[in-house]
Amino acid sequence: MSDEEVALLDAYWRAANYLSVGQIYLLDNPLLREPLEPAHVKPRLLGHWGTTPGLNLVYAHLNRVIRARDLDMMYIIGPGHGGPGIVANAYLEGTYSEVYPTIGQDEAGMRRLFRQFSFPGGIPSHVAPETPGSIHEGGELGYALAHAYGAAFDNPDLVVACVVGDGEAETGPLAASWHSNKFLDPTHDGAVLPILHLNGYKIAQATVLARIPEAELDALMRGYGYAPLHVTAEVGEDPADTHRRLAAVLDEALDEIARIQREARAATAAGTEVPRQAWPMIVLRTPKGWTGPREVDGKPVEGTWRSHQVPITDARAHPDRVAELADWMRSYRPEELFDATGRLRPELAALPPAGQRRMSANPHANGGELLRALTLPDFRGYAVEVAAPGRSSTSATTVLGALLRDVIRANPTTFRLMGPDETASNRLGAAFEVTDRVWEGEILPTDEHLARAGRVMEVLSEHLCQGWLEGYLLTGRHGLFSCYEAFIHIVDSMVNQHAKWLKTTREIPWRRPIASLNYLLTSHVWRQDHNGFSHQDPGFIDHVVNKKAEVVRVYLPPDTNTLLSVADHCLRSRDYINVIVAGKQPALNYLTMEEAIAHCTRGLGIWDFASNDQDGADAGGDGLPDVVMACAGDVPTLETLAAVDLLRRHLPKLRVRVVNVVDLMALQSESEHPHGISDARFDALFTPDRPVIFAYHGYPWLIHRLTYRRTNHHNMHVRGYVEEGTTTTPFDMVMMNRLDRFHLVADVIDRVPALGARAAHVRQAMVDERLRARAYTREHGEDPPEIRDWVWPY
Amino acid sequence: MSDEEVALLDAYWRAANYLSVGQIYLLDNPLLREPLEPAHVKPRLLGHWGTTPGLNLVYAHLNRVIRARDLDMMYIIGPGHGGPGIVANAYLEGTYSEVYPTIGQDEAGMRRLFRQFSFPGGIPSHVAPETPGSIHEGGELGYALAHAYGAAFDNPDLVVACVVGDGEAETGPLAASWHSNKFLDPTHDGAVLPILHLNGYKIAQATVLARIPEAELDALMRGYGYAPLHVTAEVGEDPADTHRRLAAVLDEALDEIARIQREARAATAAGTEVPRQAWPMIVLRTPKGWTGPREVDGKPVEGTWRSHQVPITDARAHPDRVAELADWMRSYRPEELFDATGRLRPELAALPPAGQRRMSANPHANGGELLRALTLPDFRGYAVEVAAPGRSSTSATTVLGALLRDVIRANPTTFRLMGPDETASNRLGAAFEVTDRVWEGEILPTDEHLARAGRVMEVLSEHLCQGWLEGYLLTGRHGLFSCYEAFIHIVDSMVNQHAKWLKTTREIPWRRPIASLNYLLTSHVWRQDHNGFSHQDPGFIDHVVNKKAEVVRVYLPPDTNTLLSVADHCLRSRDYINVIVAGKQPALNYLTMEEAIAHCTRGLGIWDFASNDQDGADAGGDGLPDVVMACAGDVPTLETLAAVDLLRRHLPKLRVRVVNVVDLMALQSESEHPHGISDARFDALFTPDRPVIFAYHGYPWLIHRLTYRRTNHHNMHVRGYVEEGTTTTPFDMVMMNRLDRFHLVADVIDRVPALGARAAHVRQAMVDERLRARAYTREHGEDPPEIRDWVWPY
């Protein structure tokens, strides 16, 4: 770079830093036209300076290479605390004023820009959905690099620059994310340029990667499969030197990316392949809070953890600190950066790229703008035939696999299937008829379905599956994450953050809806035959139900055709978190496809084939059943129907209504959830006053919670998972948790009044049956044949 | 090793493998004395063979070095699927028969050993609490190495051998765990010997670390700070060669560990220090399912993912497969291993170490046996003086910090404080008066409270904090994990596993109680002034409440003295997961220490100072209040009292009772939780029929859930966090979620019948007050002074 180029770039950096400090501190006097007074300073100083100058430095340099190479580039920053810097850059590029016209490119606009930051009614202190150019909320650390890779997949012309802070680098998910390069195909995917930005400190102390020898860090990055390039700036050094070194390193990195892509793509075109190569990455060391106050109150601040938040605190009460703040801000020489109206000077405004090349305006960062609906095959075509309810068995996920296979075939670059090594185990193997697992590592002749390109992504890290998929969805594509039910809790906290993102974007007009985050939770709590207690946990549903009702949907399809209908619905939806829980083991089919569609559309309904409350309706006189047997989930539905069979045989006069729930949110009131049914409809299904025995897939309390405001809620008796389990047979498992047919029959007898002596006899018979089943199981190691082979006999 | 030693070691390995296969397959005929028949084979084959022979190999070799060096060694295995191997070794060492006398060292015992595995009424398929020598449940992957380091801390004479499977190595938590060596002090801590056991496959496909070049893997391990030693065994090679190489490498590794410790300890004794050194680790590559069937149905099995579970399936229905199984088992030559009675031959029984040197009998693996109660200072000595309720403010966690400082001082080797870089931020900085953050990386002159040894462990990985602490507790020590409330969800799934462990161990007589896992959740949802929405989530409480009631406790101390009382109680407790939620910001004090102790002992109670329902009790005639204002949590308590103040001023005749809840589980029925209060007591506190306005710290539904079975539950009106928030002022935050004083007053007016026109006027005034507060906040950027400075005025 010429001296002039360096000077301009440095001025641009100063402008971003100036605007960053202004956002943290100032209510007024944004251009320091008058002497800074305490009244110009915000009363509560809330923000994070420490990471910001480094992020601004990288931003300015990326602008240079975008212009020089006409790059399509996104900027993802792990240290989301650097909110003011990213906002400042979006403002400098004009994007901010385009999406928020009241924040104009003049002094009044700058005043509003400063005032709104971390201010009531304003914008958050972190990078957030409100920030143009962002797909990554700053807050919880660890997911930046996984998001970056997710964005790069199937975007061959995109380069995602991703800053990893040295705090974030200590997290588990980030430590695993470096290995994402084993899943990125240089031919069909874009590139990720990781920038490990070490400023040496977390909130209050040193960080691991900043305090190991450079050779050790270099080995670590090489071990992760990267070719590291190092740039270090020290406190007090002339930034011009840093600019030159960083520019050279960035050019080298981008040349390398271009070379790797060129060679790989040429090889692919020629039908050959090149071995996996080490992608470039940059280790950038800059002082924390660089260009900020060197010392405050006699203690070093620049280059230490004391820069983390607000270096000069409580300025209003200390006029000398106001003066220090003014000196700090004037050190950026704002008069050289902004003209008399407050507008960025033209020679600086000419530096960033224009239009969609601006990182703040890159359309990938508002993925809904790029989103195209999936081409979906007609799910009815995959229906299993159901001649009579409850007679034939299918593995629901196996059939779903065929649908997903054809989704993949019809959408070869916009749909991915994620899972921690469970695609086959979860019976979705049909996908491998049309695609493979993407794998850039060594492939052996004995391997099956590993290839350099593929739609299936398997890594034994739920964090990576989730992070990749989030990045993929946020940039306008589609996907499904299939996971063992218990272990989806591993990403609880990531789900929180994604749900918060979705909730917030719904309130931002310029953010376009994105495809929903779809979970298929299988290998569920009731069928951990191989694994036992450690693999049993249905609580993810409870976790998501705490999120805003507008963004969460939970489905418990009881059989294959309902699963197909639900899956189709989820793949078409936008801006939701859809949780589908469905077993992979062969299970009874109940509904024809037309019935399944009707049932799923309603969300829940009476299963007439299993109910006898309308037989001889005049018997009871009121047209109501004696008991409602409700069920949600495949195993609870099976046990409920088997219980109904026992009731019919033993207590034939009892009028039983069976209600199956596939859309769990339908149980709630209309006021609580958009899928909630009216109280009148709820009463019509569950009656105003009859006992309801509810067999539920998960923790029982959730059903009480969802039906809390319903007329008949005090008659709800819920069975579900109560944290009992081990490696045992499927029926022993439901017996341990009192969800089995025998317990359900006993529950009915305990709840329906005045059933008489015969019922007491039946109740004792159920206890005997249970003991007999248990004894058989312990003797033979499998469930009794009459239980294993039970089908709906009517 | 001599040829004879190799032959003996190999025979021991074969014995373990034989017993492993027998557990997976056989119901009977354990010594194959008669031809194997289908009836001898289990009907359901549930287990995992693939990882087992490798684990058995390592076990046999570790036995050799324990004997040779008289080592105190534990064995932690990540691939918990290898349950049959670890059980087999415990059986070979005699430990199994000691703790389970019915599983004797003879043919009948062996039959029971085989039959019980993965069998109804028997033992789980994974390593589990039932497995002697284990502190690490096999199931969810990723935590083995963190557990190993946690076990090694403050156990200077212990060596923890830790097998990391290549599936587990892909997880985030494990990827971060390698860096634990920056937190292990070679002078005062023991050693961890990581063994990365690569068999090349997960469930169904290749693994990342097995498919990168050895040089890259070597660089990765060096980058993590280890000196890797490589041992590779190929399919078909003579195991004797592997034995020799593995033995040599193990000797080298243990020599290195001894050298590092010797040098560090000599330096410490001399008052100097040596630089951090690379600890040895072993990369062991063995074929998956080594020694198992080479092929089944014409497909390669040994050395492929097809060995993962049960290589020969469905044997009962296929007599030829029964023959293959018999051939496989006979290939271990059981007649050379066991005598006619089924007892291990004496020359083999002489190989493992004896007594507590056996890894299956190491007392550290049953930490409760070693547990000693903490020496605790009298927490009353830290009390803040409370001359009148609600007048003075203290930062509760700052005062707790002083208590923790003295706990550390009094227990210099058995208590650690964990947190992701938040000890100071969470105001526990008093700890640094007596200790430092442990840090083996570079230390700079400007650093504060970093040292080679220390009681405070800070790493920006909640996974590591949790994993280390679990390992530390499970080996009989004590600790506390302080964490930002929102981000504790990161370890949701780890908490599940620990809760399951605790629940299970309570039912195993030989497992002794361990210290509780104590969480201090601070920087909570209501005071994320700097951070906003991404840092707000109070749902961890909901998560733990789904676990078994016997193992979970949740406390919401409203002020400093109650926090001290609760903390003392938690530090004394055993086998619980204690969740304490307490703010770090200065907040009002309500109770003297004596009052706090009484209140915490009851768990909840009427605050007379804030109630006026007994004033002129004859007024209403029934002695009951018009409304109960309940609160749980510091911020809700503040808003409740401020609302009571408003009610007194505006509606002085309204009889208000204030109930504060510190022990959340007390709300439940006695039948639901051991801390639950009786219905009579609940009715006495909350009345049978008066409206209850409940201001709660977290998601409102939990209060409904906990009080679901109470008489007055239909009158509960709960306010809490409803997923609204951003970076704003504290009072704006409570207003956004309708938890503020003005909303609470309006709730009272809406719920108490017949309050008349004056109340309608007051209700409108509350709306006005709210709008005024919001306007003030948006104008000034801080809360109105009368809100900020409010104190209890009576």
From TrEMBL, chains A, B:
Chain ranges of the Xylulose 5-phosphate/Fructose 6-phosphate phosphoketolase N-terminal domain: 2-369
Highest taxon of source: Bacteria
Residue span, Xylulose 5-phosphate/Fructose 6-phosphate phosphoketolase C-terminal domain: 584-792
Protein name from the UniProt record: Probable phosphoketolase
PROSITE patterns attached to this UniProt entry: PHOSPHOKETOLASE_1, PHOSPHOKETOLASE_2
Record keywords: Coiled coil, Lyase, Thiamine pyrophosphate
Coiled-coil residue spans: 243-270
GO MF: aldehyde-lyase activity; magnesium ion binding
Pfam families assigned: XFP, XFP_C, XFP_N
InterPro entries: Phosphoketolase (IPR023962), THDP-binding (IPR029061), Transketo_C/PFOR_II (IPR009014), Xul5P/Fru6P_PKetolase (IPR005593), Xul5P/Fru6P_PKetolase_C (IPR018969), Xul5P/Fru6P_PKetolase_CS (IPR019790), Xul5P/Fru6P_PKetolase_N (IPR018970), Xul5P/Fru6P_PKetolase_ThDP_BS (IPR019789)
Biological processes per GO annotation: carbohydrate metabolic process
Enzyme Commission code: 4.1.2.-
Family membership: Belongs to the XFP family.
Entry annotated with the keyword Coiled coil: yes
Requisite cofactors: thiamine diphosphate
